[in-house]
Amino acid sequence: MSILSYNGGCVLAMKGKGCVAIASDRRFGVQTSTLAMDFQRIFEMGPHLYIGLPGLATDTLTVHERLRFRLNLYELRESRKIKPQTFSAMVSNLLYERRFGPYFVEPVIAGLDPVTWEPFISAMDLIGCPNMPEDFVVAGTCAEQLFGMCEALWEPNLEPDDLFETISQALMNAFDRDAISGWGGVVHIIEKDKVTTRMLKTRMD
Amino acid sequence: MASERYSFSLTTFSPSGKLVQIEYALAAVAAGAASVGIKAANGVVLATEKKHRSILYEEHSVHKIEMITPKIGMVYSGMGPDYRLLVRQARKMAQQYWVTYQEQIPTAQLVQRVATLMQEYTQSGGVRPFGVSLLMCGWDEGRPYLFQCDPSGAYFAWKATAMGKNYINGKTFLEKRYNEDLELDDAVHTAILTLKEGFEGGMTEDNVEIGICNEQGFRRLSPAEVKDYLANIA
To answer: What family classification does the UniProt entry report for this protein (chain B) (predicted)?
Structure first.
């Protein structure tokens, strides 16, 4: 039994044309028992900055709280909204501080630069090794399946509506092949002037 | 450290509500060598006088104007040894910021941290305030910054200012000479003229240090470059 697959769950993020999308499933369970279908894994850290924290549920909550603490102090001290790259470095630093007793989460970050509106995605392992690709990032108990779906479906410069379709299909078909992910889905499409959140109607098994 | 034995602060209020130690520290600053900072439209200049008590001094081995990050520089008036400690601490703070955020520290953030450090030495056991005032210049997010940090821990953002010996005359001079549209070259020229007001003897490239900060970052001018600017005022 791996500690990262105790509660189950998955998150993925994709870059589009002038937008980013981040999506996750909604299951919360204890090994094979499903206990909730409305568990929040993706958190809003700023009007155009979202972080997904798949992994051990208790650490999902704690890392979110600790990050919110650091981020609030940063924004008060610096009198400005944080850039997604800087936030990513902050998360990496927070995780590496616990190098030898880590938080069991594998963050996925998606956002738009507050000044240039450049799309940004990044993911890291549980000790903060960052990965900032040009296309998509995945994490969770069905990461392999998500990789397969994203490789097949993603293409560059997708418009927000097309990006929504792509990310939803990638998510759903991946978590349908994982016993401990699924039970509903949520997708956030982040654009310069609005963020659209949609719940997905999925197989509830 | 002395503060292990002294659990009480040496900086205490006088009946009139002043912290006399800080007043004395400011006196030490006012007795120090003159320094000037001017913010131009496209950069900042720091200039200082390097008073040497003997002709045997090797002028170019030790510098007063120091780089803290590629885009932030610093100069002082007051006690050199205190300054060196602050330079070290400021560099460490800047690197700490880099490690956490993978981003260069904004000038205002560094100034706040250095000023907080200076304030700590006015309210801790067994230590005395720093005997320096610092001028910090930087460039971030496309614009120049100039700040002063005092021994009390207070910090001020300036368009132009003078510190050290003859600073009152220096500031009066700058009030007349400063305007918002100064280019960096004109600002260097004005800074030299401000220093010249209270300069004993002749200004040469060996007894004046100049640093500039612009879009490309901070750098100290070489003696040859200083000589060129000095030639223009002759």
So the answer is: Belongs to the peptidase T1A family.
